Amino acid sequence: MKKSPTSEVRTARLRLIPGTAAMVKAAVDNHVRLADFLGASIPKTWPGDDLRDVLPQFHERMVEDSAFENWVVWFWVSRGDSGGDVLVGDGGFMGLPDEDGTVEIGYSILPEFRRQGYAREGVAGLLAVAFGIREIDTVMAETEKDNAASIHLLEKLGFCRMLGAGETGTVWFALTRRTYEG
């Protein structure tokens, strides 16, 4: 497996910044330090509940195994609007790719920045990272069955719904390298 990415990815309006253990530790307990790492302001609404609950676990993984650094947590920072750079969301990979070349992504946009195209840009950036690694063949994503915006986004980016997959209330999507490069 190729080494995890170590540099930020730029889209039209975002900087996707891969998180180190020090950055994730700051995300857990020192937002002023995190803002310094990112060169951006951190809204009071960040992190969302889902990420807040797993940040300590992600930090622990990174400390135990450096392969998780620059992989599981990516900070999504809007670039250069008149108000300066601001953290608008986050995303990343739920773990390292498995032996079949499959990896799962997750993402979240803060409520005040939704419906502005940031999720599309951020997920597209993560897909470029994933498929830039030769050994990755499939990217998976899980979302709530009633999350119409996320379902629409995944379908628009070429993901296909997997039949019979997902826990009660969720649905899984997959995007293969062949479709992505198609």
What does it look like?
The protein has 182 residues and is α+β, with helices and mostly antiparallel strands. It has a single domain, classed as Gcn5-related N-acetyltransferase (GNAT) (Aminopeptidase), CATH 3.40.630.30. It is built from 6 helices and 8 strands, in the order ββαααβββαβαββα. The chain has an 8-stranded mixed beta sheet. It is globular and about 45 Å long.
H/E topology pattern? EEHHHEEEHEHEEH
Determine the fraction of residues in helical runs and give it as a percent range.
25-40%
What name is given to the CATH topology? Aminopeptidase
Which secondary-structure class do the elements indicate? alpha+beta
Globally, the shape reads globular
Low-confidence stretches: none
How large is the count of helical segments? 6
Supply Rg: 16 Å
- N-end to C-end Cα span: 23 Å
CATH top level?
A: Alpha Beta
Number of strand elements: 8
Provide the residue-averaged pLDDT: 91
How many domains? The number is 1
Fraction of residues in β-strands: 15-25%
The spatial strand order of the largest sheet comes to 1-2-3-4-5-6-8-7
Quaternary organisation: single chain
What is the CATH-assigned architecture?
3-Layer(aba) Sandwich
Name the CATH homologous superfamily. Gcn5-related N-acetyltransferase (GNAT)
Biggest sheet details: 8 strands, mixed
